[in-house]
Amino acid sequence: MSEWMNALSLTKPVIQAPMAGGLVTPSLASAVSNEGALGSLASGYVSPISLEQQIIEMQQKTNRSFQVNLFVPEERETPEAGVFEKWKASIPMADEAQPFSILEEDWKDFEEKVELLIRFRVKACSFTFGLPPEETVQKLKDSGCFLFGTATTAEEAAALEKRGMDAVVLQGIEAGGHRGSFLPAKGEPALGLMALIPQAADALNVPVIAAGGIFDHRGVQAARCLGADGVQIGTPFLLCEESSASPAYKQAIAEAEGADTRLTSLFSGKQARGIVNQFMKTYEAEEENTLPYPLHNTLTKPMRRHALQSEDADYMSLWAGQSAGMLKGLTDVKTVLSELCRS
Ligand SMILES: Cc1cc2nc3c(=O)[nH]c(=O)nc-3n(C[C@H](O)[C@H](O)[C@H](O)COP(=O)(O)O)c2cc1C
């Protein structure tokens, strides 16, 4: 058994991906942890008070390890003059959008969440969108928390190892949801797992976890063959009865064909992979002109909220990885994990 699994008392080399946006509840994450894999709570877009409630619920539902995922706050870019007004007039319901958070508030939110993890002795924490500050790393390590960073290139993986991460999640271009890229690249920070895993595994001394497009035991074995010490799985868990993805979202994944997903910035201003829907088609020509994250994300929020309430998959962000075409219907955590770990 790998050391990272030992450290977290896991019996399966699988992490259920943290999936922000109300998709992961303690019901899903605790079911994963109770099966011997690592369940994850997503703290993105969740207030510290709600996160505290989720951690309490999680600790009531499992006594095994779980992790909490944190977004590292990012420097804000200022949009060009007139672009904000243009999008506000164009995106459905954008005039209802608020609040527009500022960077200082994001850091306060981040630090409050770190304190919660320490107070509740959460066993593991993962970061995405950047390098956590050194003091945060030190504080969490002092509390015994195991740390994962997210990288999309070997350079980012090396920077995360240097910052003190105990393991690095390698996010391939196949992955559903937002790209965790945070360092500039000479070419495209858009590597497939086949290229990324060996590059990072050879460069790092800490374990690497492969994420993106994996849905069955063949993907797990391929990732391990390339040098991964474990896998992080998102999209397949969305179809579980324990997930709180809406029926329309689950249906869109179940009906998706192999090439129905693509990267888009249209929902948030940051590249993310999702199933192509009407909103993405309508604004396709504007793909390069979105507002910076998180401004664009805030502007599309009322539209996405309304789409969720009315089960309208054409205006939701249907984040999904390239495995979507292979996922055919409702399932449950136990079945997903036994398929992944079948030999
Ligand atoms: C709906 C959805 C939401 C996601 N939200 C997060 C998140 O909050 N934090 C994070 O680190 N990764 C997030 N991810 C990315 C996952 O950690 C992981 O890289 C991805 O799910 C792996 O690809 P797969 O979905 O093909 O398995 C999200 C992915 C999806 C599909």
UniProtKB/TrEMBL annotation:
Which keywords belong to this entry?
Detoxification, Flavoprotein, FMN, Monooxygenase, Nucleotide-binding, Oxidoreductase
SUPFAM superfamilies with a match to the protein in the record: Inosine monophosphate dehydrogenase (IMPDH)
Q: Name one GO molecular function term.
A: nucleotide binding
Biological processes annotated in GO: response to toxic substance
**Pfam families per the UniProt record, alphabetical:** NMO
Q: Which reaction does it catalyse?
A: 3 propionate 3-nitronate + 3 O2 + H2O = 3 3-oxopropanoate + 2 nitrate + nitrite + H2O2 + 3 H(+)
Supply the InterPro entries for this chain.
Aldolase_TIM (IPR013785), NMO (IPR004136)
Q: Which family does it belong to?
A: Belongs to the nitronate monooxygenase family. NMO class I subfamily.
What is the purpose of this protein?
A: Nitronate monooxygenase that uses molecular oxygen to catalyze the oxidative denitrification of alkyl nitronates. Acts on propionate 3-nitronate (P3N), the presumed physiological substrate. Probably functions in the detoxification of P3N, a metabolic poison produced by plants and fungi as a defense mechanism.
PANTHER family from the xrefs? Answer: NITRONATE MONOOXYGENASE-RELATED
Name used for this protein in its record = Probable nitronate monooxygenase
Native organism is Bacillus nakamurai
Cite the source lineage. Bacteria, Bacillati, Bacillota, Bacilli, Bacillales
